[in-house]
Amino acid sequence: MIDGPYFWLTVLGVLGTGLVAGVFCGFSTFVMRGLAALPPAQGVAAMNAINVTAVMPAFMLVFLGSAVLCAVLAVVTFVLWPDDGRVEMLLGSALYLFGSFGVTMVANVPRNEALAKLDPGTPEAAAYWPSYIREWTFWNHVRMVASAGSAVAYVLALT
């Protein structure tokens, strides 16, 4: 059984990865659909505004803080953890670090950067918008499932 400070680190891991999963779930289930229903110029402008506000401290603390915490939990698991919960702890860390944080860096952020370079009212933005919505949302689904899976794995490690 996990106890002491490692218990509380794991609880924080559950909370952080679960919160991130919730944010991604909101985007996958209604935000992106709402943006896709807008005319392309409005959708592009709105998504660009969202992408700017997403890097503010409130979300970044949870998103990046969870990545740091998952890395710490992985290291602690390798060094100190008993066999009970080891697989679940490593799985939880890997799911978040690769499936959420990693996918964000290699799939979602490059698409956001490409969208930010487009003037919302141009034909280029209108042409890019449908593929952006489809591809960004697909990778967001991956991030949502990975983050939720991470939270579940950490909960299982606690049991």
Distance between the termini: 7 Å
Total strand segments: 0
Q: Give the low-confidence spans.
A: none
State the helicity in percent bands. over 70%
Proportion of beta-strand residues: under 5%
Following the backbone from N to C, one meets helices and strands in this order, namely HHHHH
Q: Over all CA atoms, what is the radius of gyration?
A: 18 Å
What is the average per-residue confidence, as pLDDT, rounded to a whole number?
96
Number of helices: 5
How many structural domains in the coordinates?
1
Q: What does the largest sheet look like?
A: none
Give the overall form: elongated
Which structural class best describes the helix and strand composition?
mainly alpha
Describe the structure.
The protein has helices at residues 4-37, 40-54, 57-79, 86-116, 123-158. By secondary structure, it is an all-alpha fold. It has one domain (4-158). The mean pLDDT is 96.
Question: What layout of secondary structure does this protein have?
Answer:
Blueprint: H1 4-37, H2 40-54, H3 57-79, H4 86-116, H5 123-158
Helix pairs in contact: 1-3, 1-5, 2-5, 3-4, 4-5
